[in-house]
Specification:
Blueprint: H1 2-8, E1 11-19, E2 26-33, E3 39-46, H2 52-65, E4 73-76, H3 80-89, E5 94-97, H4 99-109, H5 111-116, H6 120-129, H7 134-147, H8 154-161, H9 168-171, H10 183-192, H11 202-225, H12 239-247, H13 250-263, E6 266-274, E7 277-284, E8 290-296, E9 299-302, H14 306-310, H15 315-323, H16 360-383
Parallel strand pairs: 1-4, 4-5
Antiparallel strand pairs: 1-2, 2-3, 6-7, 7-8, 8-9
Helix pairs in contact: 2-3, 6-7, 11-16, 12-13, 13-15
Length: about 400
């Protein structure tokens, strides 16, 4: 877990909705996303209660085990005690709220509007997801309140106070691996139900929990060895795509390729040069919104903030790179090691400054599975031949 957290611990998801025993004591799981966009487990805890003190102790203990490294972003549901503990222990970590839960709470608190007003759903979602500048969000929010006479709605007032934790106009500025919800935590909770029962004692619990963690790790190792993870031959001879194919895992490459294909539909509207600063106004042929791409001292940014949020270049920057005749390789600025095939390369030290070793048994199991698959294919091919088999 220390090795995984050191590599992928920039974004974590913490959840305590799973209950482990008859007393319904909270079980806190800390999970993340690896370079194959799969679930990875960083740690877990059995808590007596869900107070500020308990969460504060848990976070301090967890980071002590992880040599003090803290995430860039942490996701969870809206829990006051947990939020306070995060603010005390993770001063520089961006606390994100799950958008799925916010939307579900909106359905409960504003159900009458979702049913009676055909345009409310679109207007509410627009406040959450649209807009690249704070002024756009504020204006859309105020217009929504006025349009549906919601100025005095207490739930919306309370939600607006923590807007920096959920409105995309704010959260796009911080790396979140492209995630918007705590779906990974919920997936792990669902997985645990196949391993854990309420009548397990503490020893049995951890034994079965370790089985669940081993299976999650095994899936990642298999993704590294599995032949099906090999990226197919490119249909077009584009150097930038070839470079992406060489460095990214299959899943991340597919995300990159999607943005590249969208870039073919991006149009440069205007270009302005002022000293070392170049500014491009671009838009997608399928939409009317303009995006601003700026190049300054070799660094390129886009107003859509896709790279800051996901860690992959957006179609707008890819279009500008093409305009700048950068066609052979992805600039180093836009390559996050955590998304590459070599994400796990390098040495990781634990709290005692000893090198953390990966589990050789898991790698052996993955190689075994890969060899079995290859052997079956060879046998299937050999079975097509009418020649006699050699007897041993």
């Amino acid at each position: 877990m220390i090795l995984d957290y050191n590599i992928y611990g920039d974004v974590v998801f913490f959840d305590t909705t799973y209950r482990t025993n008859k007393e319904c004591r909270p079980f806190g799981a800390v999970v993340g996303v690896n370079h194959h966009y799969q679930l990875v487990v960083f740690g877990a805890s059995l808590l007596y209660d869900e107070t500020i003190q308990s969460f504060e102790w848990l976070f301090h203990t967890f980071f002590e085990c992880m040599s003090g490294k803290k995430p860039k972003t942490i996701f969870n549901d809206r829990d006051p005690a947990m939020a306070k503990a995060i603010s005390l222990v993770m001063l520089e970590t961006y606390h994100r709220l799950c958008l799925w839960h916010i939307y579900q709470n909106a359905l409960k608190n504003l159900n009458h509007l979702f049913k009676s007003q055909k345009t409310f759903n679109a207007d509410f979602r627009s406040c959450i997801y649209d807009g690249e500048y704070e002024e756009e969000f504020t204006s859309a929010w105020e217009n929504m309140l006025e349009k549906y006479d919601l100025q005095e709605n207490e739930w919306l007032q309370d939600l607006f106070k923590v807007r920096e934790k959920w409105a995309m106009v704010y959260v796009r500025n911080t790396f979140s691996a492209g995630k918007k919800s705590t779906q990974l935590s919920e997936s792990f909770n669902s997985l645990l139900k196949d391993y854990l029962k309420s009548d397990l004692d503490i020893v049995q619990f951890f034994k079965h929990f370790q089985r669940a963690v081993d299976d999650v790790r095994y899936n990642e190792v298999c993704a590294n060895y599995d032949l099906s993870q090999k990226i197919p031959t490119l249909k077009v001879n584009v150097p930038l795509l070839r470079h992406a194919k060489d460095i990214y895992t299959r899943t991340v490459f597919n995300m990159f390729q999607y943005e590249f294909e969208k870039s073919l539909m991006v149009v440069v509207d205007t270009f302005h040069q002022s000293g070392l600063v170049s500014t491009y106004q671009v838009h997608n042929c399928e939409g009317s919104r303009q995006h601003t791409v700026t190049s300054s001292n070799g660094l390129i940014t886009c107003s859509c903030k896709n790279f800051e949020f996901v860690g992959i270049m957006c179609s707008h920057i890819l279009k500008v790179l093409d305009e700048m005749k950068i066609k052979l390789m992805i600039p180093e600025q836009f390559i996050l090691k955590r998304w590459t095939k070599n994400a796990r390369a390098g040495i990781v030290l634990d709290i005692h400054e000893c090198e953390v070793q990966s589990d050789p048994k898991l790698e052996m199991r993955a190689r075994y599975r890969n060899l079995c698959t290859t052997y079956v294919r060879l046998m299937s091919k050999a079975a097509e031949s009418k020649e006699h088999l050699i007897s041993f």
